[in-house]
Write a structure and sequence with these properties.
With about 325 residues, this protein is an alpha+beta fold. About 35% of the residues lie in helices and about 20% in strands. A five-stranded mixed sheet has the order 3-2-1-10-5, with helices on both faces. Strands 4-9-8-7-6 form a five-stranded mixed sheet, covered by helices on one side. Strands 11-12 form a two-stranded antiparallel sheet. Keywords: Cell shape, Cell wall biogenesis/degradation, Peptidoglycan synthesis, Transferase.
């Protein structure tokens, strides 16, 4: 089975297929047309650590977003939970806005885009760090690393949307797919209050299929609120008066999702024994198969034209969710 996976991936990851300057391929354009979107339409990115996946969402003619493509992630570092200080090897979790100035077509990791960590809320909370990227090569020290071919496609897609008038695209970075079941599996984690806040934004997007309006006050993210006197001046001061941007039906659906989490967390079920088992980040199971079969040197050559080795391969093989 591993041999079959390795053979299939080695074909799709051939370095000859990676353009020096990423451009939208005819295949991607045709796929967009089949899915009712265009290269010029707005884009949104979602990242999931536990699943080691990055999603590209594209807007259709109605303005609603639909999943366009899911990319397996080659490497991320740290553990589940937000980044709080420089050098902690944590990949960020939260909501970020990426503009054209944050794209780097000449990255040392092929191409990349900067998430913009620390964002305004994180700065106010005293979090430190810089140059947290989504990039090529299978090496991470706080970043999200894709294959060269994967980041090439992603870069071309987001660059085209920005070049076509989208001021910035939203990146939603999560510890895992934020179902009530996954929340319950990690109920003993000290990051749970923060993750419950992230889930509010996750649910808002899932229900509306529109990027949530993200604000910050009271030391947390606040979603889809219209503030009477304009956006809060301080991300850590108490939230000023506001009104809900969503209608009563959508707000009720969000309350239902919150109730599901309350029930799941209250259930007399043990938390997952793997919740804190990460040695140092993870890797998608498809790449884990290549790493196990071929070793880190061969894998590094398969996934990237740069000279960066797979970061901490032993830790990647220890990914409790990479089975």
């Amino acid at each position: 089975m591993i041999a079959a996976v390795g053979a299939a991936l080695s074909g799709c990851l051939a370095l000859d297929d990676v353009a020096q300057t990423p451009q939208l391929s005819s295949t991607i354009k045709s796929e967009m047309a089949r899915k009712g979107t265009t290269p010029e339409s707005p884009v949104l990115v979602r990242i999931f650590k536990q699943e080691s996946e990055l999603e590209i969402w594209k807007a259709d003619k109605s303005g609603n977003f639909a999943l366009f493509k899911t990319y397996p992630m080659c490497r991320w570092s740290g553990k589940l939970g937000p980044k709080t200080k420089i050098g902690d090897r944590q990949a960020p979790e939260g909501f970020y806005a990426v503009s054209a100035s944050q794209l780097n077509p000449k990255s040392q990791y092929y191409v990349s885009f900067n998430l913009g960590y620390p964002n305004r809320l994180e700065q106010a909370l005293g979090y430190t760090g810089e140059a947290l990227m989504v990039h090529g090569a299978c090496s991470s020290s706080g970043c999200y690393a894709m294959t060269d071919k994967g980041i090439g496609e992603i870069y071309a897609i987001v660059a085209k949307a920005l070049d076509s008038g989208q001021p910035s695209f939203q990146v939603q970075a999560y510890p895992f797919r934020m179902t009530a079941q996954n929340m319950a599996a990690h109920k003993g984690d000290p990051n749970m209050p923060f993750w419950r806040t992230l889930k509010e934004g996750y649910d808002a997007f899932t229900i509306t299929r529109r990027p949530p309006k993200v604000s910050a006050c009271g030391g947390r993210y606040v979603f889809n609120r219209n503030f009477t006197a304009g956006e809060p001046d301080s991300p850590v001061a108490s939230c000023p008066p506001s009104t809900d941007m969503l209608d009563a039906t959508l707000s009720a659906r969000l309350q239902t999702e919150e109730s599901k989490v309350d029930a799941a967390l209250a259930a007399d079920l043990p938390a997952s024994s793997t919740m804190s088992a990460y040695v140092d980040g993870g890797m998608h199971k498809s790449f884990r198969a290549i790493l196990q079969q071929a070793g880190p040197k061969t894998m590094a050559a398969k996934v990237s034209g740069t000279k960066y080795p797979v970061s901490r391969p032993e830790a990647a093989l220890a990914d409790p969710f990479g089975q």
